[in-house]
Backbone:
């Protein structure tokens, strides 16, 4: 009997996670739903997920569907919340401007080209954020240049030459297609592998 | 028979075969003999004595040296401060604060034309080197930050803003190349504007000049009447 008692598996202690008041997350415009990852994140903080999704989708009605929007949700003790929807993510804006779908996969890879005029326009959009109010436009532009570097986008001072850009984009498309084909082949080989 | 078997079992259990058990010290003489026989023949090592406190001293000296990056940063900061022509600088004690709070506070201060900078005391000491500001080195202890402004009347706004924030405390201020302690700074901040102070000073100086003119004018005005009086009294005596 005693051995039986000892063998009994001790019930795992559940440690309750105490969440902070601020929830930072990226939600796609008009696409908030109760499904993971957003639903559990909100549920754990005691918010009404359905109401939140409804409000968020209504607020983001003027955005194109699927645009990733950085969102800051401040949860109050009485389970009400303050919703702060920022302008679309910098990486999304830069990728859209450069006409590319993905960033660099390896070091020193150039995936797109932008001129400083593009960055200036994006900086003007980003400067409307609450977090970037009273920040100099030059400082925002510098931050954008850093993000361009991480994405593999080349920033040039002069305007882009349309012919050169077209040539570059065609070459890039071929390269990306080859990369995607290689990935698909690898995946297929993995699926077929029996050992 | 049973007793004997239990004793042998106990011996087996007691034997310290695992490395987790402490080895008997001193080791058994047979073991020592064995180890001495197997010891490789190496040249005798000369052990060097390190003077007490030498390591600490070396460490302190090394921490005082500036790397190329630090020198470049200090040059950059100095050039920036000269280029921007800041007129007011407050050296503050800077306590730990969440990044988001700090970022919003920086932006808030920037909206009041106050620039928040925190480079570390080592860099700041290098920036202030060979300048009148080197006397501020005494307050650069612990974690410090600088509040800079181009407008002289920012003394008031700096004090107002730092009173609102509990993680920043101004220690000393510098206005137009003069060090102003916090008591004086508070007095200055009570004035509606520093232009009033300037006007007051000009008025005092103007009063002095006018007083001198009046004094000199009075003497010249009195002189003829005095001379007349003297002349008339002399005639009467004659």
Residues:
């Amino acid at each position: 009997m005693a051995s039986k008692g000892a063998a009994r598996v001790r019930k795992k202690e559940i440690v309750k996670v105490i969440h902070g008041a601020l929830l930072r997350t990226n939600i796609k415009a008009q696409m908030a739903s109760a499904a993971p990852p957003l639903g559990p994140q909100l549920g754990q903080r005691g918010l009404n997920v359905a109401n939140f999704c409804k409000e968020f989708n209504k607020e983001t009605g003027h955005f194109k569907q699927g645009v990733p929007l950085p969102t800051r949700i401040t949860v109050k003790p009485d389970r009400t919340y303050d919703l702060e929807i920022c302008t679309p993510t910098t990486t999304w804006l830069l990728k859209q401007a450069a006409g590319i779908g993905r960033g660099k996969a390896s070091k020193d890879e150039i995936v797109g080209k932008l001129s400083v005029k593009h960055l200036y326009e994006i900086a003007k959009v980003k400067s409307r954020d609450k977090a970037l109010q009273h920040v100099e436009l030059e400082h925002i532009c510098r931050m954008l240049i850093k993000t361009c570097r991480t994405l593999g986008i080349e920033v040039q001072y002069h305007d882009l030459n349309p012919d050169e850009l077209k040539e570059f984009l065609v070459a890039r498309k071929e390269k990306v297609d080859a990369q995607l084909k290689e990935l698909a082949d690898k995946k297929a080989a993995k699926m077929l592998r029996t050992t | 028979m049973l007793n004997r078997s239990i004793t042998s079992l106990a011996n087996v259990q007691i034997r310290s075969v695992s490395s987790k058990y402490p080895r008997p010290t001193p080791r058994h003489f047979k073991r020592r003999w064995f180890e001495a026989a197997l010891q490789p023949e190496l040249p005798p090592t000369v052990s060097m004595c390190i003077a007490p406190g030498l390591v600490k001293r070396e460490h302190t000296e090394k921490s005082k040296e500036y790397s190329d990056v630090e020198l470049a940063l200090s040059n950059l900061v100095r050039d920036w401060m000269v280029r921007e022509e800041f007129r007011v600088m407050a050296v503050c004690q800077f306590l730990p604060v969440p990044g988001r709070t700090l970022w919003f506070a920086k932006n808030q201060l920037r909206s009041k034309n106050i620039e928040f900078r925190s480079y570390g005391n080592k860099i700041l000491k290098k920036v202030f080197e060979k300048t009148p500001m080197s006397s501020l080195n005494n307050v650069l202890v612990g974690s410090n930050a600088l509040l800079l402004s181009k407008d002289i009347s920012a003394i008031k706004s700096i004090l107002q803003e730092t009173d609102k924030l509990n993680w920043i405390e101004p220690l000393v201020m510098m206005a137009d190349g003069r060090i102003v302690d916090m008591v004086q700074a508070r007095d200055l901040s009570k004035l509606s504007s520093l232009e009033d102070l300037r006007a007051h000073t000009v008025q005092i100086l103007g009063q002095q000049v006018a007083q001198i003119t009046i004094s000199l004018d009075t003497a010249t005005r009195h002189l003829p009447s005095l001379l007349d009086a003297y002349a008339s009294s002399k005639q009467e005596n004659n």
Notes: The interface with chain B takes residues 22, 131-135 of chain A (CB under 8 Å). The radius of gyration of chain A is 23 Å.
